[in-house]
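Lecture notes, continued. The same structure-token format from the folding unit now serves as the input rather than the output. Read the line below as a description of shape only.
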């Protein structure tokens, strides 16, 4: 998937913003949480916030576009999880509302960037051997109901083989 030449992951604005998001949460939120939350809310928030950029990077390093998109979906899930933890911290009185609103805005902006990157990847060219590149299409079948015609009359039932008298059991 790395068709960016030598630019690398640093060329992705969404990845840089995700890194900044995790850094800001670390710098501004963790010190406000009580020690009782150190191994619960703080640890979960740390993991989910760091997971956003990590999954973008992992998807960027994948060969197939579909794998990259899948990791971006996981990054988006982690972003929503981080927002949920921030909301909980605010509702529990650990996080001032103005700081929560700052992070709500940053979450929204990062969500837009991530959705845009996913859309970009979806528009990208797929490799010949990429999973999902080979579409299977059925022919057009008419599903019109004709009360005057019984479709079973024209069907060649002999193609189905003999109908057993008893249920078929595996031996």
């Amino acid at each position: 998937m790395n068709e960016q030449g030598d630019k690398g992951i640093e060329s992705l604005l969404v990845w840089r913003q995700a890194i900044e998001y995790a850094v800001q949460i670390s710098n501004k939120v963790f010190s406000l949480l009580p020690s009782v939350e150190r191994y619960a809310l703080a640890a979960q928030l740390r993991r989910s916030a760091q997971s956003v950029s990590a999954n973008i990077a992992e998807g960027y390093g994948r060969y197939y576009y579909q794998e990259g998109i899948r990791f971006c979906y996981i990054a988006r899930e982690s972003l929503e999880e981080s927002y949920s933890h921030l909301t909980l911290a605010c509702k529990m009185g650990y996080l001032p509302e103005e700081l929560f609103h700052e992070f709500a805005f940053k979450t929204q902006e990062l969500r837009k960037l991530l959705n845009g990157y996913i859309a970009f990847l979806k528009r990208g060219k797929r490799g010949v051997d990429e999973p999902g590149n080979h579409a299977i299409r059925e022919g057009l079948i008419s599903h019109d109901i004709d009360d005057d015609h019984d479709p079973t009359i024209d069907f060649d039932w002999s193609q189905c083989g003999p109908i057993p008298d008893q249920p078929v059991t595996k031996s």
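Point for the exam: Helices lie at 13-28, 41-60, 65-91, 97-123.
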